[in-house]
Amino acid sequence: MTVFNLDAFNEHEQVVFCNDEKSGLKAIICIHSTALGPAVGGCRMWEYASDEEALIDALRLSRGMTYKNAMAGLPFGGGKGVILGDSKTMKTEQLFKAYGRFLNHLNGRYVTAEDVGITTADMAIVHTESDYVAGLEGKSGDPSPLTAYGVYKGIKAAVQHKFARDSLAGTTISVQGVGHVGYYLCRYLHEEGAKLIVSDINQASIDKVVEEFNAIAVGIDEIYDQDVDIYAPCALGATINDQTINRLQCSIVAGAANNQLAEDRHGTELMKKGILYAPDYVINAGGIINISFEENYSLENAMKKVDEIYDTLTEVFETSAREGNTTNQIADQLARERIDRATR
Q1: List 80, 153, 156, 195, catalytic entry
Q2: Nearest Cα to Cα of residue 251 among 335, 198, 317, 341
Q3: Percent of the chain with pLDDT over 70
Q4: Cα–Cα distance measured from residue 159 to residue 229, given in angstroms and rounded to the nearest whole number
Q5: Rounded Cα distance, 14 and 154, in Å
Q6: Which of 70, 124, 153, 228 could disulfide-link 335, Cβ–Cβ 3.0 to 4.6 Å?
Q7: Burial level of 42, CB count in 10 A (0-12/13-18/19+)?
Q8: Model-level pTM?
Q9: Tens of pLDDT along 50-72?
Q10: pLDDT at residue 128 tops 90
Q11: In the annotation, is 305 catalytic?
Q12: Cβ neighbours of residue 13 closer than 8 Å, sequence gap 6 or more
């Protein structure tokens, strides 16, 4: 397995491979940039098919966090941690304590928080060994509700740009993944009168949104074929790829998942199909914005800051339409400009 030759490694400052035989911890921490401040980004736990798949995921996620924090106007750089393993069977107190000790070796260059497969309770264990932990209960807490709120506001911005309407009433939205963030997003969408089509690998999660929000459940693979206004990917990344992109029957892609495009060129393919894409790291920034209010936490102030996602996406959409470049290219460009200005 190569590291420096990987396309995803480009511009990264540091990659740390963590191994603790006693606890069984195997983890990768990627620091993409500390130009704007300490690298802040969640830690996810997932059973990857290979070490290389885990590394590429961590590299892409950490770069996304750099751009996410820049576009949200936060004084953070970008980083990400991944713990290799099954979050349902392999979690132990010793494992998370070991992860905390590895954080200490980085001396504040990277600050972690919860992500896929990780809970605030897990982060509390990490915090017993390290101060470089955010999103703790009693402070900003679970970032999922604010992430969902930001995606909801972003969907409204996309609908306004694409259809010149403010309300989501009567729209049909397919939501792929109805876990923590997806559930809260469904609640916002249902309350505004949207019709929901949902899928998830967890039947209990499906049953919950079907019962509470009158959603229609479809199979995991069938979600791509639904005739909807909006496709909202809220599970893992790369669901917009060569196998799925021609199956999409939507006008907008706007969801909470990270790295929704398998490759940047898929943004061009969406544009050719007339599908408006809300860049993932712009629309899903609500969680990290919430964490930025960790000290002297105020939900009201956090939500006001999350509201800005609407305006940021509107700027991206309008610049894309004016210049003829894809929305993901425009977002990358704006993020890099903000980083360059800060470093100068």
Answers
A1: 80
A2: 317
A3: 99
A4: 9
A5: 32
A6: 70
A7: buried
A8: 0.91
A9: 999 999 999 999 999 999 999 99
A10: yes
A11: no
A12: 31, 32, 33, 34
